[in-house]
Fold this sequence. Notes:
Layout (H helix, E strand, L loop, with lengths): L5 H34 L12 H17 L1 H11 L2 H14 L1 H10 L3 H16 L8 H4 L9 H7 L7 E4 L3 E4 H12 L9 H17 L5 H6 L3 H17 L8 H10 L26
Helix pairs in contact: 1-9, 3-10, 4-10, 5-6, 8-9
Amino acid sequence: MTLFTPVSCxxxxxxxxxxxxxxxxxxxxxxxxxxxxxxxxxxxxxxxDPWESVNRRIYDFNMNLDEATLKPVAQGYEKxxxxxxxxGVTNFSSNLRGPLNIVNNFLQGKxxxxxxxxxxxxxxxxxxxxxxxxxxxxxxxxxxREDFGQTMAVWGVPxxxxxxxxxxxxxxxxxxFALPLDFLSDPLWHYNNDPERYLLIALRLVNLRAGFLSAxxxxxxxxxxxxxxxxxxxxxxxxxxxxxxxxxxEDFYEDFYDDLPEPDPExxxxxxxxxxxxxxxQRPE
Length: 285
């Protein structure tokens, strides 16, 4: 029997709370941007990141929170838990994404990929012991990861501005509003045993954070970690939306060539002293 507690109530209503927070955030960010435009008319706004001032504050909050809480736990987890066990947790987490992948592949009209993901879920959940072992990849059923943000992109919903969501990090506005649907597709949110659900969610979160420890130095070494995080996320997201084959951005190349410096003019040829009077180039007497 599951007890009705404030924590369990919050867990079950979390996707809806997140959606409300996103609505509030977008409104506050819009007001902040309008105020900034009124005070700095000469400032050049980044069309991809018009809410940069707000995003940077949330980015700093997320990074400070991570440094104080999740990162130390992930570092200890990586040192104590052997690699094969961490691999099992990663496989288990990937298997729980199966329903999300299946639904969105079919919603995008990818029938073959949807059937493949269904086979992966069934095979790994049974022969693979609840997904701890990725048997499906061994027999040629490769993962076809999709989510509701990618589905909305296929349906024609634009990216919208870049946003940094508290606790969740970088997103596009479209992907941020799709997050509640992604959560509702996770089987753990429908699991009735609260203590076990919270333990599994925490384990997945720590394991996910541990997977980014090795790449963290690249972010720290950059001149502006915020910009590097933004550009890396947007590039990877574009790559995912187009299934690894994004179209060539002609405007990028036009802007690139426009920014190139003009070549120096070629020097004028020196006059021939012999001229017509000395066509053979003979030395005058």
